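The instructor's notes for this session suggest beginning with a concrete chain rather than abstract definitions. Hand out the sequence below and ask the class to guess, before any prediction is shown, which regions might be ordered.
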Amino acid sequence: MELILWRHAEAEEGSNDLARVLTRRGQQQAGQMAAWLRPRLPENCRILVSQAKRSQQTAALLSKSYEILPAINPDATPEAVLSAIGWPESERPVLLVGHQPYIGQVVAQLLCGEPQMWPVKKDAVWWLQHRVRHGVSQTVLKGVMAAGLLEPRR
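After discussion, reveal the predicted structure:
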């Protein structure tokens, strides 16, 4: 199973967390990351987003075809997220547009065996793959891309 974790782009402040929208800069960041991701995504990739407006706006710059999954809302636990996406049994690749702190916790758990508090920058992508080699279950880090690396140099 391939799992692509994409933290939503920069969002406005606000008291209603699910209603917060992307800033102008966030829209630019998400557009650049979407342009980078689009030609690289595996075929038949399932795109999952939380109920938060900012995650939906981030995903919409990549594709109009995504599923809203309340189980990956901002307050989700790493265990709930992994269960909701079917890790590692899912036959289809999954791109999840979500939130901190659980994205960092999921990455840490899959790579180190425990959900540590790893920081993940806004609009960053972590690409992981589950495989079995010689009877041993492994999680492989295929790549990490940060929004700042995609921005044009000034």
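Then share the key points. The mean pLDDT is 95. The beta strands are 2-7, 46-49, 67-68, 94-98, 125-133, 136-145.
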